[in-house]
Design goal:
mainly alpha; Serine Threonine Protein Phosphatase 5, Tetratricopeptide repeat
């Protein structure tokens, strides 16, 4: 396929970059993360050259796709680094990445690092969404959790009745 593209458009064409990107996405979806990173890197390099820098939307898409691969690999620090470059420090997706890193620290029982990541994520959400909306979301999540706990207790008592 790439030979036909190169023959038709040459190696410095946006469709070639898009093809590298699409191949990278297929590889990501099939769990071939290292190969996906190679394809996305080719796409990013070509898009950066064609578009004349890293401020073009297609370059941002390539950066985002690389970040998604790292996220799916579980390399949240690398994903966060890429998302910070792409989105800036005050974006809800950055908050999500910081929470993921916090979860990793929790599993490693690194309490202060865990607290730091969750605090930073909460700060971003309050700043972007507003404190009232964040409180409303927190209440909704807490209520849903309580409902699940109550439902589980009810189901358990029903099972005990029949046993």
């Amino acid at each position: 396929m790439s030979q036909r593209l190169f023959a038709s458009y040459g190696q410095e064409h946006p469709l070639v970059a898009e093809s590298w990107n699409n191949i990278g996405e297929v590889l990501r979806l099939t769990g071939k993360y290292e190969e996906a990173l190679e394809m996305h890197a080719k796409s990013l390099e070509l898009r950066t050259r064609i578009c004349g820098g890293d401020s073009h939307l297609s370059v941002a898409r390539s950066c985002n796709n690389i970040g998604v691969v790292y996220d799916e690999k579980g390399d949240f620090k690398k994903a966060l680094e890429i998302m910070l470059k792409l989105l800036g420090s005050e974006h809800p997706s950055v908050a999500n990445s910081k929470e993921n890193i916090g979860r990793v620290f929790k599993k490693m029982t690194k309490k202060s690092e865990e607290r730091q990541m969750f605090t930073e994520a909460a700060h971003i959400r309050r700043k972007v969404l507003g404190a009232d909306k964040v409180r409303a979301i927190d209440c909704t999540v807490e209520n849903k959790f309580k409902q699940v706990v109550l439902l589980n207790k009810e189901m358990k008592s029903e099972q005990d009745t029949y046993l």
